[in-house]
User: Fold DNA-binding transcriptional regulator, FrmR family from Desulfoscipio geothermicus DSM 3669.
Amino acid sequence: MATLSNDGSDRHGAINEDNREARQHIPLERDPATMKEMMSRLKKIEGQVRGVQKMVQDCRDCGDIVIQLAAIKAAVNRVGITMLACHLADQIKNDQREGRNIKESLQEFIAIFKKFS
Assistant:
C-alpha cells in the first residue's frame, strides 16, 4: 500500500482519489497565540515580497535584492517549521484518539518534511 500525504498524493506526488478520504487529516484546535504569530509572520512576508517587487521595478542593486530574498526565504522557513511541528502533533493526537498505529503517520510526515526541505 502506498503511503499517502494528507492531500491524497503518494510519495511521488501522484493523487490517489480512493485513499484520500481514508487518511483525511483532521486538524485539531490550534493554539491561538501560535496561529496569531503565524498570521503576523505571513503578513510580514507579504510585505517583504511587495518590497522586493518595488526594488526590481526601481532597478535597485541586485545584491540588495538578494539580501531581501534571503530574508524572505528565512521567514518562510520559520513559518514552515512551525506548521510542520503543528502537523506532526495533530497527526499523533489523531492517531492516538482513533487507536491507529503512529508509524504510518510518521511516514507521511517524513514525506511532507522532504517536500518542505
Remarks:
- The radius of gyration is 18 Å.
- The first helix runs from residue 17 to 20.
- Residues 1-23 have pLDDT under 50 and may be disordered.
- The chain is about 70% helix and 0% strand.
